[in-house]
Amino acid sequence: MQNNKKLFKLGTGILTAGTLLMAACGNGNATSKEANDVTATETTSGETVEITFWHAMNGPHQEAITALTEAFNESQDQYEVVEQNQGGYDELNQAITGAGVSGELPTMSQLTSTDVPELASNDLLVPLSDEFLTENGFEQGTLDDIYEGFKETSVFEEERYAMPFSKSTRLMFFNQDILDEYEVETPSTWEEIEALGKKMVEAGDDRVAMGLENGFEMEYETMARQNGAEFINGETLEVDIDSAESVEALEFLGNMMQESYARTAGEDGYFSGPFGRGESAMYIGSSAGLAHVAPVAEENGIDWGTAEVPTFNDKELTLFAGNDLGLYASATEEEQAGYVAYVNFLLQPENTAQWAMDTGYVPIVEAALDVPEYIEFLKEDPRSEAANRMLDYGVTSPTFAGYGEFRNELVSAMEEISVNNADPQTVLENLQTETESIIEANK
Q1: What is the DSSP letter of 159?
Q2: pTM summary value
Q3: What is the SS3 assignment for 114?
Q4: Could you give the CA distance from residue 351 to residue 364 in angstroms, rounded to a whole number?
Q5: Separation of alpha carbons 378 and 239, rounded Å
Q6: 414 and 374 assigned to the same domain
Q7: For residue 233, what is the DSSP state?
């Protein structure tokens, strides 16, 4: 009963954080890929093993994952992956929570790093060590080729519990017309953005230099860590949220909003719409949101492009978001081997490149950047290149038991800044105390 209660707590605590991390997905035209031959472990029965896969992909993303799944199923006759859309991300989280309590989990599902600590703490996930993966047919070369930052996205208490799949990074969208109007180059630092904001305010411009999502906690964490704050130590769980470096970063963001150099999306929900209507010179959002910007910007005749996220204190750093694929402990050994074969297939260079082209997410392995079709795609759509340039220095926020509750507290703290103009020092001191209490309560 204790585990059940803990899992129900998860179900009410992680929905907001999970949605934020997985939101702003891009769109695209899914196309079928010819299947690659994938080596999989022989099944003992000789019959095809069914692998149930729950996800929250919709629209073009649904078409893309269906095409890849069909290609995998056609590439071998040992496993059949049956993908089942659970609705949106909230519905997927609710379905996982309910199935965890009832004991009717699928073989695998999409997970965010927010989900992992609670599921792992309830012994519902299989630890995915390198040894486990390779013994079940995962190619060592593919494992070695995964970008380092992605390898840490679902690590909890030094164990990996999910494999990277639909990953995104932050991306800065810019309005070339506004930059030309003020005769400035594309900013690469927050100080340059602040300077542009001052020019625009002095000119009586009701547009802003920078647009932010209503949930801008990732921008704050990025800036704090660029500025030297450790934030939360993944090994010791020591909290550094109210350090001088962290406070300085939030004070900078708060001042940007108070001086009307920046604003959040407000009633629009996400800033892709306001940016596409020409209401800001720049906007930071998910790299998977390219297709949300494109139709609005083109409808309004906006000349736009993308760039790497700006630096604060000259430090290159960006945060990874998105989702991974977890394997449930209730799966049989044959189903576990099927999971490994399927993920190995998805992470082949041609397939992760195809997924990136069809969805707006980024490739998972470095070799994908050498796939001829992807090279040609980037030539035709250079706006997708900026996200890839950040893959080498992207990092993942460490997760811990109670992480979903922490993310909700972090979002609330940012609302205090944007809505109530609260004092950053006080806000972060309170968040520090709340975070330490959450970590202590979940030991």
Answers
A1: E
A2: 0.84
A3: coil
A4: 10
A5: 40
A6: no
A7: -
Q: Helix, strand or coil for residue 373?
A: helix
- Give the number of domains in the chain: 2
Coil vs helix vs strand at 343: helix
Between helix 403-420 and helix 2-13 the angle, nearest 10°, is 30
Print the domain residue range for 245: 170-319+400-441
Q: List, for residues 231-275, the tens digit of each pLDDT value.
A: 999 889 999 999 999 999 999 999 999 999 999 999 999 999 999
Same domain, 230 and 288: yes
Q: How many angstroms separate the Cα of 248 from the Cα of each of 227, 253, 320, 374?
A: 8, 9, 23, 40
Residue 359 near residue 64, CB atoms below 8 Å: yes
Q: 431: helix, coil or strand?
A: helix
Torsion region of 183: left, alpha or beta (phi above 0 gives left; psi -120 to 50 gives alpha): left
The CATH number of the domain holding residue 37 is 3.40.190.10
The pLDDT tens digits of the residues spanning 370-409 come to: 999 999 999 999 999 999 999 999 998 888 989 989 999 9
Intra-chain end-to-end CA distance of the chain, in Å: 18
Same-domain pairing of 92 and 222: no
Measured distance CA(180)–CA(175) in Å, rounded:
9
Structure tokens at 91: 């519905």
> What residue type is 129 in one-letter code?
S
Residue 134: which residues within 8 A CB-CB, separation 6 or more?
A: 140, 143
The structure tokens 């082209």 sit at 357
Neighbours of 151 (CB within 10 A): 17
- Parallel, antiparallel, or unpaired: how do β-strands 162-175 and 304-307 relate? antiparallel
| Token pair listed for 329 | 């402990």
CA distances from 291 to 173, 272, 359, 360 (A): 12, 9, 9, 7
